[in-house]
Amino acid sequence: MSKQTYKVCFCFRRRYRHTVSVAPPEIKTLFDNYSDKGLMTTDLLLRFLIDVQKQDKATREEAQEIVNASSSLLHRNGLHLDAFFKYLFAVTNSPLSSQEVHQDMDAPLSHYFIFTGHNSYLTGNQLSSDCSELPIIEALKKGVRVIELDIWPNSDEDGIDVLHGRTLTSPVELIKCLRAIREHAFDVSDYPVVVTLEDHLTPKLQAKVAEMVTDIFGEMLFTPPSGECLKEFPSPASLKKRIMISTKPPKEYKAATDDDLVKKGRSLGDEEVWGREVPSFIRRDRSVDKNDSNGDDDDDDDDDDDGDDKIKKNAPPEYKHLIAIQAGKPKGGITECLKVDPDKVRRLSLSEEQLEKASEKYAKQIVRFTQRNLLRVYPKGTRITSSNYNPLIAWSHGAQMVAFNMQVSFQFPQLHIVAR
């Protein structure tokens, strides 16, 4: 037991006792076996690392680093019992090697949680910060396996920029982001990197993207054999050192101005400002349940799959063939979104709010969907300071891609790709 004294009301003191972890007898015995007169020197610690920890390749320099990190400046000649006990439970003394994989990585990709970034190119807040390739590099060095890029025509409409659309963020050229991904994709892990593209381009610019991606990634790029939707996702083990593109199948380009939206009786709310991959379909699904019909919602036209075959003819074939993980959703509301197609797999994206509402009524369907398909959950649009949400709801429903804002100081989970 140790004691601490606190001032109360600025006039008198109170003394409190609090418990301190004490080394159990087994640890004391172990320490005695590898210490001399109450001190575990660097050489004795090295013996302990080799004999007990089975670190056959441990060196004296590594043992000295442990002593330096676990002891005060006045006791750099070795470890006392308390310092040794703290070292055993330190983060640096993990029971599993961070450089080794201890799971079966031969199952389909949908069987794993994947470390995912949100708006990976932003340096700060979601409204006015700069866009750069540097945050992408930092994310990859942290082990992120899913990088998100929002691609838009540049000011001259003859090139491609990456930026958070309809905000004050400054753009960065797409080619810089792609080169950064190529150079740093596998700095900390050989398992695949998925690049999700939020595509706001014309067919002509889509063809440019296809050329860029093919030239820059080269043999790293994974594409489906026939250029069609996959029937089952490959395993992480089979995708080592590969980069996958995930986006919606290309659709006919339609430039819409703010005036056009106002003329339609729509104001620029959060969804228009922040963009969305899946509209708020909870309301529509309730009307479907109530009326027992499949009424269409005009707001969902951009996300329907029914017109894809006709529209794809207007899209460059090179761009379509790059898409390894197709995204999007069908008509009919959430019940249709969560239907499992035995002949193809896909990615569905929901905001944190959409998932929370959907999980109240469709929890089983969500879990069933994620057994074969990928579910990506991203922060709601009002998180303009790049804050993050509690990922447990998404993980507990099987969401593999829980997207984090990497721009802020946050205790991210220590995972790259791990089994669910």
TrEMBL record:
<dbReference type="Pfam" id="PF00387">
    <property type="entry name" value="PI-PLC-Y"/>
</dbReference>
<dbReference type="GO" id="GO:0051209">
    <property type="term" value="P:release of sequestered calcium ion into cytosol"/>
</dbReference>
<dbReference type="GO" id="GO:0006629">
    <property type="term" value="P:lipid metabolic process"/>
</dbReference>
<dbReference type="InterPro" id="IPR015359">
    <property type="entry name" value="PLC_EF-hand-like"/>
</dbReference>
<dbReference type="InterPro" id="IPR001192">
    <property type="entry name" value="PI-PLC_fam"/>
</dbReference>
<feature type="region of interest" description="Disordered">
    <location>
        <begin position="285"/>
        <end position="317"/>
    </location>
</feature>
<dbReference type="Pfam" id="PF00388">
    <property type="entry name" value="PI-PLC-X"/>
</dbReference>
<dbReference type="Pfam" id="PF09279">
    <property type="entry name" value="EF-hand_like"/>
</dbReference>
<protein>
    <submittedName>
        <fullName>Phospholipase C phosphatidylinositol-specific Y domain</fullName>
    </submittedName>
</protein>
<dbReference type="InterPro" id="IPR001711">
    <property type="entry name" value="PLipase_C_Pinositol-sp_Y"/>
</dbReference>
<dbReference type="GO" id="GO:0004435">
    <property type="term" value="F:phosphatidylinositol-4,5-bisphosphate phospholipase C activity"/>
</dbReference>
<feature type="compositionally biased region" description="Acidic residues">
    <location>
        <begin position="294"/>
        <end position="308"/>
    </location>
</feature>
<dbReference type="GO" id="GO:0005886">
    <property type="term" value="C:plasma membrane"/>
</dbReference>
<feature type="domain" description="PI-PLC Y-box">
    <location>
        <begin position="349"/>
        <end position="407"/>
    </location>
</feature>
<dbReference type="GO" id="GO:0048015">
    <property type="term" value="P:phosphatidylinositol-mediated signaling"/>
</dbReference>
<dbReference type="InterPro" id="IPR000909">
    <property type="entry name" value="PLipase_C_PInositol-sp_X_dom"/>
</dbReference>
